[in-house]
Specification:
The protein has 197 residues and is α+β, with helices and mostly antiparallel strands. It has a single domain (5-192), classed as Cyclic Phosphodiesterase, Chain: A, CATH 3.90.1140.10. Helix content is 25%, strand content 39%. The strands form two sheets. It has a five-stranded antiparallel beta sheet. Strands 3-1-8-9 form a four-stranded antiparallel beta sheet, with helices on one face. It is globular.
Length: 197
């Protein structure tokens, strides 16, 4: 059987932004969560799943085409909070256990356009079904251990709702591979494509 690779398209963060965001792992040490290593912090544009080498080649061509059609732009990071937003469960009760701690970015026209272009181009190249929910840029900082989180008394749950003011310029988009290793996932940049500055 042909080997498949877990592939996603992402925006990587500058080193100084990664450093500042990683400091939150020291701030909430009591939280039952697995913090994302500093080097793994990124914004996922599209998660493509398990692909063959041939499909990866097609993806790289598609991402290059998209990058050439868009100029660099700025992403503003606004909040550190629990995510995704808690919603009503299937039985009508509210979901009370957050899945992650994440950074919320400001929605922007440029980001929406590049993602829409990616979806359209990738749908033509491979059998790819885009996510139906609206895209909001975010960076996962930690994944919560739900079992341990349930054991915390409600009044002792750390409140995480911090307003931040960070911004960076996006100059490239990357095709990345996720490999599960003993210590957690390792992300590798397969190809980086500069935006048309």
């Amino acid at each position: 059987m042909e080997k498949r690779h877990k592939i996603f398209v992402a925006i990587n963060l500058p080193g100084d932004i990664k450093k500042q965001l990683f400091l939150y792992s020291q701030k909430f040490l009591d939280l039952p969560a697995r913090w994302v290593p500093k080097d793994n912090l990124h914004i996922t544009l599209e998660f493509l799943g398990a692909l063959t080498d041939m499909e990866i080649g097609e993806i790289c061509v598609a991402v290059k085409e998209v990058a050439e059609r868009h100029g660099s732009f700025t992403i503003e990071l606004q909040k550190v909070l629990y995510g995704p937003p808690l919603r009503q469960g299937s039985a009508g009760q509210a979901q009370t256990i957050p899945k992650m701690v994440w950074v919320e970015g400001k929605k922007s026209k440029e980001l929406a356009m590049i993602r829409q272009d990616l979806e359209n181009t990738l749908t033509e190249k491979i059998s790819f079904i885009p996510e139906s929910r609206a895209f909001a840029p975010h960076i996962t900082l930690a994944r919560i251990n739900a079992m341990e989180f349930r054991q915390i008394e409600p009044e002792e749950v750390p409140e995480i709702n911090e307003v931040i003011d960070l911004a960076f310029t996006v100059e490239s988009i990357e095709v990345m591979e996720s490999e599960m290793r003993k210590g957690g996932p390792v992300y590798t940049i397969l190809e980086s494509h500069n935006l048309n500055n």
